[in-house]
Amino acid sequence: MSSRTPDRTPAEPVTPPGDDRGLRADARRNRERVLRTAQRLFAAHGLGVPLDEIARRAGVGPGTVHRHFPTKEALYLAVAIDRIRRLVAEGEALAGTGDPAALFTLLSRMTASGAENAAVKSALAAAEFDLRDAAPDAAADLTHQVARLLDRARRAGVVRHDVTADEVMAIVAGAFAAIRHAGEDAGQERSAHIAGIILDGLRPR
Amino acid sequence: MSSRTPDRTPAEPVTPPGDDRGLRADARRNRERVLRTAQRLFAAHGLGVPLDEIARRAGVGPGTVHRHFPTKEALYLAVAIDRIRRLVAEGEALAGTGDPAALFTLLSRMTASGAENAAVKSALAAAEFDLRDAAPDAAADLTHQVARLLDRARRAGVVRHDVTADEVMAIVAGAFAAIRHAGEDAGQERSAHIAGIILDGLRPR
Amino acid sequence: MSSRTPDRTPAEPVTPPGDDRGLRADARRNRERVLRTAQRLFAAHGLGVPLDEIARRAGVGPGTVHRHFPTKEALYLAVAIDRIRRLVAEGEALAGTGDPAALFTLLSRMTASGAENAAVKSALAAAEFDLRDAAPDAAADLTHQVARLLDRARRAGVVRHDVTADEVMAIVAGAFAAIRHAGEDAGQERSAHIAGIILDGLRPR
Amino acid sequence: MSSRTPDRTPAEPVTPPGDDRGLRADARRNRERVLRTAQRLFAAHGLGVPLDEIARRAGVGPGTVHRHFPTKEALYLAVAIDRIRRLVAEGEALAGTGDPAALFTLLSRMTASGAENAAVKSALAAAEFDLRDAAPDAAADLTHQVARLLDRARRAGVVRHDVTADEVMAIVAGAFAAIRHAGEDAGQERSAHIAGIILDGLRPR
DNA sequence: TATGAATGAGTCTTCATTCAT
DNA sequence: CATGAATGAAGACTCATTCAT
User: Which of B90, B116, B120, C65 would be B83's cystine partner, CB 3.0–4.6 Å?
Assistant: First the structure.
């Protein structure tokens, strides 16, 4: 590349960056495709999906997967962290509204099923690896976000008092599992119903 | 049982037998050891534990594991079915008491953590294979048992009306996952608390 | 056994003995059943048949097979030697008739298909182990028998002169293989035809 | 070929390609090495040779063998099909010469021993798996080729009339077995002699 | 002695990771 | 940088052989 095109990079970080800053456009596109494909496949078939399969579905070679994610665990992590970042961002936005029931809105969104959340369901519910060990920062951010909303809800009297943010997180993970247990084919409505029942347990008696 | 009815079960083992009737004494002992070891290891480390590891820990050769459980899937199943059988038996006993809240007693027992239930947690929560496909009879028995108790609880007005037996099963699976998510080290009390919150969602508003 | 029944063993060796002299009646019967079953299964499915399968089909436990034939190779050998012994006996009988074409009669009988010879076909044709290494005596006996008949046929001018007994043996092995290649379902007639063509090659031009 | 026809095959490899077209140079080289090693070892020690041994001798890892031949059976097949392809090609060439005795030339070549044919000997003679089931096309091609030459030989009166192409194939298989039976160490001359005697059976009486 | 359960070395196969093209 | 072939350490499973009942 000639020195005539130096003005390209400074404008970059519009979208929340992963670890893909400073990559060539094609490299970034590949990283993104691998990440999305991995989310889809992990969610659908568990963490046992072969990397070669992910590479094939993403339309790249296995070597490319390893260039971006040096080990399989790194790919798990990237998938989970990516989802969590989005949830934290959502929580941030909800916190801005001042709604005392924002906690439930966030939790509902988290459990609202659909392909989008499948990866989180899988990653958290499967518990085959523990996010809190692997990506303490991201997990802490999310828990912290939840803690803020929980605090507010508590002050407004819309949530029971004997529950901690950690427990809320565990219960959300449980809701994921329940939905997943109800079956892939359960449908939005059924899933929402189940999640609703579980979240109802959080309301004051 | 009073000592007045000694002619009923003298030849019968006390615990409900698995598929191990008619085996030689040593074979039954080994089968049992493998099954227990598998429960423990699956619960602790997921379904990915090598069979050779299970064999080693059970103090037998890998061939012995295969004699009793021809494939790894057969071992998963045997573990899960064994646990479910016990739950069904518990449900049977509770049904006999006439307590209208027996449903919650059973669910609490199901979720009551401890090594004993760890395998069910793992087997159901992981959902890496679906019991309802693999052992329809055992799963149906359990659901049926739950349905009976749910019906009674409904008539007594101690459970919300908009929930089905299948949904209760899903919610229990969710509670397993939540407990598991809370961590191996969470302790009985904490686990019971989380399960309690989730089950509270089932009570009438 | 009391000393009052010492007259039993001397009368034994009426049928050509295997290695089963001095066995109890039931033990001998088991040995025989294993041998026949092995012949049948080796012929039908090759030397790879599991010993457990042979045991099961013979209606005995695997331990019993090993009592009589300490290794699998010992069983191969016993099967092959048994067949060869019978062929040598047949050759002996034919040699007594004085028929100059007795060689062809023997060879035809050897190739005459049917279950009876299947084991030899397998054992010789497969050549997965070499009889001449493993049971030099039996093989030498048979070759020697063939040599005698070959010599006589030669003197009568009914066989080509440029062929040795070893080559005749090889050609017979070839005929076995040809019949086997023609298919299990070929039928007596077809098999005889093929064997006939091959043996015709031995006649003087 | 004279130098006057250079425009026919410039871009074509000389040996008929297997399924290795379009492979990278190193991949093709490895595939070839595995194939040749497998031919050699199958011929020398039967189909029971461990894949790991083949890999080791070929100087590749076991995974590489599986990349090219996903199962062991696929490797058997590839070996056998490769040999048959060459024989069909030879038959094709011989058919072009117009020689009425071309059948015998082809059969002699087929039976001509040496390392080259060892694999076919093994594959056909062992009959542990049936080519006609596994690779009907290749086997049919060869039989068809033989049928053509047989027909021509019959019209020229150099072969007996009561023999079919299938029987010729069986007899060739028998000749393989006979040669093999005569021993690895028999030498070209001895092998040719035995094969000659067997093929003589095909000539008119 | 017969049985059949147990053993454990050995087999095929998979797949995360490395490296030549 | 991307590709995809190669690697090789496991993993599930088989089966000849041994040994307790």
Answer: B120
Subunits with 3+ Cβ pairs within 8 Å of D are C
Of the partner residues D126, D170, D201, the one whose CB lies closest to the CB of residue C126:
D126
Q: What is the pLDDT of residue A12?
A: 37
Angstrom distance (rounded) from CA D75 to CA D54: 11
Does C199 lie at the interface with D, CB-CB under 8 angstroms? yes
Sequence-ordered list of residues with C-beta below 8 angstroms from that of A107, at least 6 positions apart, any chain: A168, A172, A175, A199, A202
A27: confidence class by pLDDT, cuts 50, 70, 90: confident
Closest nucleotide to A65, Cα to C1': F2
B50 and B131 in a common domain = no
Stretch C147-166: mean pLDDT: 93
**What single DSSP character describes residue B7?**
T
The predicted pLDDT at position A200 comes to 94
Q: Which residues of chain B have pLDDT under 50?
A: 1-17, 114-116, 118-119, 121-128
Which candidate from A127, A166, A178 shows the least CB-CB separation from B173?
A178
**CATH no. for residue D51?**
1.10.10.60
Measured between beta carbons, the chain B residues lying within 8 angstroms of A185 are: none
The helix/strand count (H/E) of chain B reads as 11, 0
Provide the residue range defining the domain that includes B175: 79-200
Residue D40 confidence (pLDDT) above 60: yes
Would you tell me how many other CB atoms lie within 10 Å of the CB of residue D131? 21
For residues C89 and C183, membership in a common domain is answered with: yes
**Torsion, Cα of A32, A35, A36, A38 (10° steps):** 150
* Contact D/C (≥3 CB pairs under 8 Å): yes
| Whole-number pLDDT of residue D119 | 45
* Of D96, D21, B127, residue with least CA distance to A178: B127
Residue C9 lies in a domain: no
Same domain, D105 and D167: yes
Distance CA C23, CA A166 (A): 76
- Check residue C107 and give its pLDDT: 87
Chains B and A in direct contact, meaning 3 or more beta-carbon pairs closer than 8 angstroms:
yes
Which of these ranges, C18-22, C148-152, C169-173, has the smallest mean pLDDT?
A: C18-22
A133-153: buried (b, 16+ CB within 10 Å) or exposed (e) per residue? eebeebbebbbebbbbbbebb
Q: Which residue is nearest to nucleotide E18 (CA to C1')?
A: A63
Give the model confidence (pLDDT) of B123-156 as tens digits: 444 444 566 666 778 878 888 888 999 999 999 9
The identity of residue B43, as a single letter, is: A
The protein residue nearest nucleotide F20, judged by CA to C1', is: B26
- Residue C67 CB partners (closer than 8 Å, separation 6+): none
CA distances C97 to B109, B113, B186, C149, Å, are 90, 89, 94, 11
Q: Name the closest residue on chain B to residue A197, using Cα atoms.
A: B201
CATH number of the domain encompassing residue D150: 1.10.357.10
Take residue D119 and report the two structure tokens written for it: 């694999």
Residue B197 is predicted with a pLDDT of: 95
pLDDT digits 0-9 by tens, D57-77: 999 999 999 999 999 989 988
